[in-house]
Amino acid sequence: MTALVDRPATAANVILLDDDRWDRVLAATHGEAAACYQCGTCTATCPWGLVAGPSIGVRSVIREAQLGIDGWAEAVWRCTTCGACEARCPHQVPIGEVMLGLRGLAWRERTAPGELSSVLWDMHWDGNPWGRPPSTRSAWAAGLDIPRFDPGIHTTLLYIGCTASYDRRAQKVARAVVGLMRAGGVPFGTLGDDEPCCGDPARSLGNDAYFERIAAANAAQFKVAGVTDIVTVSPHCYDTFSSHYGAAGDQFQVRHYSQLARDLIAEGKLTFSGLEATSATFHDPCYLARHHDETEAPRAMLAAIPGLELAEMERSRSETLCCGGGGGRMWMETPADERFATARAREAAATGAAYLVTTCPHCISCLEDGVSVAGARDLKVIDLAELAMLAGCVSAPTTSPEASHD
Ligand code: SF4
Ligand code: SF4
């Protein structure tokens, strides 16, 4: 053990370095913090600076990861992995991965927040992080007569995800996506009650070992089922399948539903009757706009709706403001005055738009709360798929919607 002293030693300014500890932190973060030169841009960018309560102190966390010392124990759990800091970091430090690596170390050392264990146990016993019965996973689809995915009939697996399967509000989004795909003439099915959790909650809470087991099991299940093309309701599932399944993910292509709709519109297979003149502002989910640089697919859908005018917020596209629901934060309590979504709702209301549109079940939940807390009563939060259905999403004349029902 070594004492580093740059001023006369007092209890307050001595940092004790422990070689074993340094090894463990370095291994957990894969040495990714090494490139940091402590400019502080990340701390200045982090949305925790916009709300009441403690900020993360991102630069300090990265410094602690560099030196292999503690101090990050509470801060890392506040990170929403929104990617705003990384986008501005001049040394391309993968800050979100460092945060998740430190969370992983906390799991191994049994210092992770106790309440998060129940999320992982719910995934283990029930196959979803909400602790809901697996036997009711497909209850969201009541009356829709959605077929079981069959590779001999269907090109595409519609993957619903846990939140859209069980959350009453998000279930409406799943049903709207079904309408969109049927209107576009896409032959698709689902896995019904056998649909597995994609693993995002385990990964975003930093439990990589558990996530790897889930990913391997899911890849095997998809292979047996003959799945080669997946469309997701949530950007988080899209990100998980497309970026974190490693080589196993090469067996299928993955699109978020907005990307499928963009393609259908471009091919002339999907059109909209239109809305009475109205306006919308669009909230880019971090897991599309920043993690996948996908900002145009949703806007192509919005532009295809006659009668709809888009009023952009200043923070849009890759500059979007996180809703607060990523990085496992959906399973953690956030006091009302510390919610990013309240600030986001105010930004949306300032555009004067009638609709606050987004494309993520977590964003919907956070933004509806934000609109309520901000008192923006005239602003309606809506998913883009729901707006598309309101706008009279219709098949092109040459396409039979019945083709997708069998
Ligand atoms: S922005 Fe990048 S280089 Fe600057 S302090 Fe943060 S992690 Fe380090
Ligand atoms: S990823 Fe987002 S929440 Fe996490 S430290 Fe960076 S800016 Fe802050």
Condensed summary:
By secondary structure, the protein is of the alpha/beta class. The protein is 40% helix and 10% strand. The chain has helices spanning 19-28, 41-45, 58-67, 84-88, 95-108, 114-126, 162-166, 168-183, 200-204, 208-225, 235-243, 257-266, 286-289, 296-303, 340-350, 361-374, 384-390; strands spanning 2-4, 15-17, 156-159, 188-189, 229-232, 253-256, 270-272, 278-282, 308-310, 355-358, 380-383, 393-395.
Explain how this protein is built.
- There is one protein chain.
- The protein has 406 residues and is α/β, with parallel strands linked by helices.
- It has three domains: 2-108, Orthogonal Bundle (Fumarate Reductase Iron-sulfur Protein, Chain B, domain 2), CATH 1.10.1060; 116-264 and 399-404, Rossmann fold; 270-390, Rossmann fold.
- It is 40% helix and 10% strand.
- It contains 17 helices and twelve strands.
- The chain has helices spanning 19-28, 41-45, 58-67, 84-88, 95-108, 114-126, 162-166, 168-183, 200-204, 208-225, 235-243, 257-266, 286-289, 296-303, 340-350, 361-374, 384-390, and strands spanning 2-4, 15-17, 156-159, 188-189, 229-232, 253-256, 270-272, 278-282, 308-310, 355-358, 380-383, 393-395.
- It has a four-stranded parallel sheet with strand order 4-3-5-6. A four-stranded parallel sheet has the order 9-8-10-11, sandwiched between helices.
- α12 crosses α14.
- It is globular, with a radius of gyration of 22 Å.
- The N and C termini lie far apart (68 Å).
- The model is unreliable at 1-7 and 398-406 (pLDDT under 50).
